[in-house]
Amino acid sequence: MMLNFFDQFMSPVLLGIPLIALALLLPWILFPNPAARWINNRLITLQGWSISQATHQLFTPLNQGGHKWATLLISLMIFLISLNLLGLLPYTFTPTTQLSLNMAFAVPLWLATVIVGLRNQPTIALGHLLPEGTPLPLIPVLIIIETISLFIRPLALGVRLTANLTAGHLLIQLIATAVFVLLPLMPTIAILTASVLFLLTLLEVAVAMIQAYVFILLLSLYLQENV
Questions:
Q1: Is residue 100 part of a domain?
Q2: What does DSSP assign to residue 17?
Q3: Which site from 41, 60, 111, 142 is most exposed, i.e. has the minimal number of CB atoms within 10 Å?
Q4: Residues 89-124 pLDDT 10s
């Protein structure tokens, strides 16, 4: 039974071909494309308003140099939200439950922010490793601690996204299994459990969007330190 719960996180394979590539490409087909008309429909208007608000919230604290990253990070946020939400549908696979994929997103972007900081303002970037006013005996220890915390950042990004989505999927499957088991035995308890499952599903929809937003928010904060 326990092995079956974790089978949903295995990458599906058809005729020896991993379908994770299809799961990564599918969300881009679902986005509506703006038409050449002056007046768009409500869906495209809502999509544009949401992107505008997210861009304003994330990139207002950054200076002009950080605004160059807006297209990349906002596109990644929309992509992650789409993957997370599509993974909540029945008989679907969520690529963002794979730590390797999340690390593939986190490590290059984190490394790019560090390289930008070292190239544009190396003194300030290295100064983050040693807080101002540190006593002389603590300087070596603090440099080691700050260096470790710097290199842990991409791992924390990937693990946070993976752990939250994995925990949510497991809870949904466990409660859904309990509903099917209790339905013939105790219908009243099964109905109450099904209501809890419905509320949990709504919570997971919110978590799917919030975690993608937090992923990009933390990257923008790392970028703010280096531009």
A1: yes
A2: E
A3: 60
A4: 887 888 888 888 899 999 999 999 999 888 888 887
